[in-house]
Design brief:
Blueprint lengths: L1 H4 L5 H24 L1 H15 L4 E3 L1 H9 L7 E4 L3 H6 L6 E2 L19 E4 L4 H12 L5 E4 L2 H7 L4 E3 L2 E3 L32
Parallel strand pairs: 1-5, 2-3, 2-4, 4-5
Antiparallel strand pairs: 6-7
């Protein structure tokens, strides 16, 4: 009985509250009080602070670009995990693991090839865009709001070459940024290196 009440008897409980419960509650409060738009902007600003060298492109600009046959089309890279990519992705997107990137998909392309990278909300893609710039790629942009905001705006997403309405929510906390009608019922992603 005394051991259970002794100070420091359950140090894991404080860690659990700090690492898991509090961020979920804060995230839910931001979404409920301020709305998704504000939450996406907060994520973008925090990500831009961590990766100040990364250039951004908004969703409307990318949509116009991809519809304009007179412009050189960008290579679109999906920085999410394979299970996320398999649920849905942007049309023609090539998956590149942000945790273990490889230049194989870009082999034989000039270093000034236009590249647009996206993730769930933009953090993993900013990390990948930063890495690509370090590899000498000079025309890389991160999609603001990434796939979650793209889907929330009813823009087209695909699975196996066909339109779909499902998006992997990453986990229950980050999935709050994705409108519920798009959230696929799938297990959470386990990535030790980064949030979406």
């Amino acid at each position: 009985e005394r051991a259970r009440r002794a100070p420091g008897g359950k140090p894991w409980l404080g860690l659990l509250l700090t690492v898991v419960v509090v961020p979920i509650l804060i995230g839910a409060a931001v979404v409920l009080i301020a709305g998704r738009g504000t939450a996406f902007e907060v994520v973008r600003r925090l990500t831009a602070r961590k990766f100040p060298d990364v250039q951004w492109i908004d969703r409307a600009e990318l949509a116009r670009w991809r519809e304009d046959p007179s412009r050189t089309q960008p290579i679109v890279l999906d920085a999410r995990t394979l299970p996320e990519y398999q649920i849905s992705h942007l049309r023609g997107a090539v998956r590149m693991d942000a945790g273990r990137p490889s230049l194989r998909p870009l082999r034989d392309l000039p270093k000034n090839t236009p590249i647009v990278v996206y993730g769930s909300v933009g953090y993993r893609s900013a990390r990948l865009a930063h890495w690509l710039a370090q590899q000498g790629y000079t025309n890389v942009r991160n999609l603001s709001g990434s796939l979650f905001q793209w889907a929330n705006e009813d823009r087209p997403i695909f699975r196996d070459g066909r339109p779909t309405l499902e998006v992997h929510p990453y986990d229950s906390r980050w999935g709050l940024l994705l409108e519920s009608r798009y959230r696929a019922s799938v297990p959470d992603v386990e990535t030790p290196f980064a949030a979406p």
